[in-house]
Structures are given as structure tokens and as C-alpha cells.
Predict the 3D structure of the following.
Amino acid sequence: MTGDTHYDLEILAELAEGLLDAATALQVREHLAICDPCGESLADLAAVREMLSGTPTPAMPMGVALRIDRALAAEAESLRGGGVGLVEAPAWDDIMRDAPWETETPSLPEPEPVRLGVVGDDGTVVPVTPARRRRAATRRRWAMPAAAAGVAAAVIGATVVTTGILSASGGPDTNPMIGVQADAAPPKYQLTDSNWNYTDQELSGSLLGYIGPVNAGGTTESSKIDQCVRQVAAKVGTAPFAVDQGFYNGQEANVMVFWHNVSKNQVLVHVVGPECDQVREPALARWK
Amino acid sequence: MNSPPETPPAADQQAGRTAVSDADLLNRHIAGDPQAFSEIVKRHRDRMWAVALRTLGDPDEAADAVQDAFVSAYRKAESFRGEAAVTTWLHRIVVNACLDRMRRKSVRPVADDELIEAAERETPVPDQTTEREVSMEVSSALKLLPADQRAALVLVDMMGYSVEDAAQVLQVPSGTVKSRCARGRAKLVPILSHLRNRSDLSRVSSAKGAELRDG
């Protein structure tokens, strides 16, 4: 293969991966030695590899981490028999169907409140109780609508505090929740984490559908956002009743909602960035 | 950047805390320790996030997939068999959750000429290509690949795992991983070549090219 004929990128990529048989590989290499365009193609392939490996891999955003912690706390709660009941499982059977560890699955309708297992000599874990469980429970609703998320946050709040699952904020592990409860009188507001990407228009309309109903007295908090809430609250002169962690025009943002006039259903909306910087002029909106 | 280590360095450095292996943590979780699983999550969430984000190319989808995967792992901990590393097992669950999402969205394979058209359409050719722009373009280019090639490239080229580790995660032979990577890279060349021409990333390993050429 010489002259005007060239190898295509796929062959060259296979050469680079050592996938070609010896005879073909030799042939291609001989061609490469005299063919500049093919040499450039090979360089292009290497460049693609470098570009891929040079692409930075960002850390998980705190909003996502907290959301996962909450989902796991809800899961722990439902296993304990409490059953938050708001959280619905995705189609685990579909997700896991190709997995090799999926064994025969006799369907046992009842959840087991406590799971026990023993560790075999080879380090594998042998469940003592019947292995498969909660087939019946796997079809509950999973994707929590924003309205339900707030309630779930309130319901599982106690668990979160006691187990320290929220310690994702990164302190030493010994006592992750230290200081949070000791704090005298934190402002009472509902903290939700919708991850919704708000637009300016949405923030001028009705917010209830995005943030969800306020659960009286239910507050969860993480110290950083709490600090920021205090800061903004000091500026406004009153405490917000709802705070939602989401995005504003694609940027990470906290939406704080203050009552402006309850009877007129008017709320004041502050939007701040992760560093508590104001990212949108405070403006009025409707709650319902 | 090689194979997924069983215990990331950060976990070792935690003062006053002897490093507990992932497998131990998983066993503790199964035995009812309420802290154990969140420790596993803390150790691995960044990598799981990276895999999901790169595979799906969309933060919302990635967040859903990673959450599904961790909850799934939480429930299925007892079905973990000790012969694989916990990290491999977790990666597998995350990758499966991602592939499942892609299947549900039924992303159809795209023909090569469509790829190039899409690349030209979607690339406004800025004067200076910043790292962020490159990253976004790499993301959108990856989205144009078939799911299996994308998953292989994310693990091997982007996450830096060995072909063997990727093969374990994807549960296919190493040769299959290599050929998926090869085909995926070949498809990416026309899409990304314009980036290479004007960015610093063009420090192409011509040394490597020469090495290959000369055998």
C-alpha cells in the first residue's frame, strides 16, 4: 500500500493498540515510514488521547454529594422499617440485570428490617437472611419532585444529624456535627436542594412549585450556607423561610426566599453564589 | 492515574484513623454499621462523579446516575463477591447505571459525516481555546460516540485506568476494550482535530508516533 492509497484512522488506531496481526502491522509500519499523511493521522490519534487525558475531572459538587447522602439516609430509614415513603426506587432490576453478581432472584415480598451477613474465609460475604429482598418495594417513586424533597429533608433531618451523614462538608470525622446543634438559635428556614437551574423568568413567577411547601419548624442546615443565610438575612432585616440549593443560569446558586407580604403572597428573592456573592438583583416574586 | 487503588491516599492521611479497607467497610455496612457506607461514598464519590459526568456528558443525568448507583450499591452490598475490588464493583454499578440511562434515551449511533457536521455546527471557533472550552468540546464530542466506545474511552483515556481494569469494570475481554478505544479515537480525530490545531494540547507525542512507526 503505497502512493495515493492511505490507511484509514481505524486501522492506524488498531495498530497503536497492538490489535493488528504481525503481518498486517508490519505492512502498515512500512507504509508509515514513507507516507507523511498517514504519519499525521497517527499523530492525530495520539493527540486525541492526550486531549482526553488532559481534560480535567471535576470533583463532585457539594449539592450532588448532599443529595446522595440524603438518598442514602432515606434508604437507611426505610430499611430500618420507618419507611419515608416518598422516595421511590429506580428500576434496579434493569440497571443491574447484566451484572454477574445478580444471582437467581426469588422474589420475596417483604423487606427485611435488619440485614445480617457473615464473612466467609475467602472474604466474601454470605448473607444469613434470604438474600433477595424488597422486590415489592422497588417500584416506589424515586424521582422526588421538589415539593416532596422538602418534606423528605424535614423527615429525615433527625437521622442525618445523629448519624453525621452530612459530614460531607469535610471536617474531621470524629465529630462531624459539632457546633451545628450547639449554635444558639439558628434561623428557621427550610433548606432544599433541588439542583434546579433557575432562570430569571422563573424567579419572577410562582416559586412554590420549585421549592416546595414549607414544613413548619423543619430545618436542616450546613454551616457554610447557614452563615451565608445569616449574612443575607442581616441585609434584608428578616430571615428567609426557604432556601434552595440549585443553579441560576447554569451557575451554582442558592435561592433565598423571604416573605415580603404574606397576605399578598409576595416574596423577596435573593440569589447568591457559592461564596455568598449576590448573583442577581433582589426581586419580588410570588410564592403560590 | 492508573488502576483504581483500593484505598485512596486521602483516607490514609486522616489523622488518628487507621486505614480501613473498602472491603472491611462494606462488611461493616452489611453488619449494620450506619457509618460504614457513607465512608465508602466519601472515598469514591469524586471518581464516580467523574466517570458518570464524562460518560453521560450532562450534570443532571450524571447526578441521577451516581445517586442511583450508590443507593443500588447500598442495597446490594451483600451480593458483592470478594473476588473483585470494591472500587471495581462500584465503577461497574456506576457505568451500568450510565449505560442504562443512555439506552433509555436510545441514543442512536451517528455516521461519520454527521459527526463532522455536528462538530462544525457546534463549534463557534473562539480565538483562544481555554481549558474549559476544550473540556466542553471534548464532552460534546464524546456524546457523539456509541455508548460502549464512550464508556471505554472514559475509563481508559480520561480516567487513566489500565485496559485490564476497564475490562473488569465493563466485563468484556481486554481486546474488546482496546478495539472500542481504537474505534472511538478514530471517530474523534476529525471532530477534535480543529481543537488540536489551535490549542496548547497539540504537543502531540510525535515521539510516540515515531516509536510506533519504527516498531
